[in-house]
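> forwarded from #structure-qc
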């Protein structure tokens, strides 16, 4: 009975995941093509990228829409120019019990980073999953100098000592005569704080508590999300000291 219940759910999950991946690949190409079209050609040429035939667009005023797209185009051209490079950052579906925090049904939000020789910006695009076309675009209020990511990798490489230390402590616990070892393993994995955060755009930050697996987290998806998170291994230090004390 359990198997009969689980298999359909697993099938639905796998099919949904495959569809999402396929859509993401398509949105990656489409978003870049749209940006090149509207910046290097004109607003009229960009209209076929929009889901004007969808239910959500049935009350859209085309002239008003063109005016909005012209403002979008002018903003990008004035601040960044037309010769841009693009990086696909993310595609996500956000669900929440609060309606305003959820994506509309059958839509995907795509985040695209663009940059010229000196600065970068970010644009969010809302796609209709049925037609695979745009419903809305929004330029985030971001114009930042392109950061140097070298320090991110240097800090990340040096900080590898923390998960290595935690793994060493877990191995020491495994070889010890302590009871309920699994609780000690969980503690070493979870309790790594206070937390030092380095972001290539905003620099260093600090949090009292933020979960980092084994004490180190590294993310490199676009400049805004290029972050290394370093947790102080308090549980690892405690059990390292405790095991040495027990041995004595």
């Amino acid at each position: 009975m359990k198997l009969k219940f689980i298999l359909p759910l697993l099938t639905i999950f796998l099919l949904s995941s495959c569809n999402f991946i396929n859509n993401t690949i398509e949105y990656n190409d489409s978003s870049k093509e749209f940006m090149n079209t509207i910046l290097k050609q004109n607003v009229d040429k960009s209209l076929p990228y929009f889901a004007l035939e969808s239910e959500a667009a049935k009350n859209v005023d085309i002239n008003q829409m063109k005016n909005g797209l012209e403002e979008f185009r002018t903003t990008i051209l004035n601040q960044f120019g037309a010769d841009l490079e693009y990086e696909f950052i993310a595609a996500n579906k956000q669900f929440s019990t609060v309606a305003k925090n959820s994506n509309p049904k059958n839509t995907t939000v795509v985040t695209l980073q663009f940059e010229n020789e000196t600065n970068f910006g970010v644009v969010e695009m809302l796609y209709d999953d049925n037609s695979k076309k745009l419903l809305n675009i929004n330029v985030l209020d971001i114009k930042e100098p392109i950061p140097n990511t070298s320090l991110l990798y240097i800090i990340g490489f040096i900080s590898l000592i923390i998960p290595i230390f935690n793994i060493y402590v877990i191995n020491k616990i495994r070889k010890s005569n302590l009871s309920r070892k699994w609780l000690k393993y969980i503690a070493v994995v979870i309790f790594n704080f206070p937390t030092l955060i380095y972001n290539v755009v905003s620099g260093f930050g600090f949090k009292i508590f933020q979960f980092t697996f084994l004490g180190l987290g590294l993310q490199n998806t676009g400049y805004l999300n290029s972050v290394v998170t370093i947790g102080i291994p308090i549980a690892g230090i405690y059990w390292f000291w405790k095991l040495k004390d027990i041995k004595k």
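QC bot note: The chain is about 45% helix and 25% strand. Residues 2-40 form the longest helix (39 residues).
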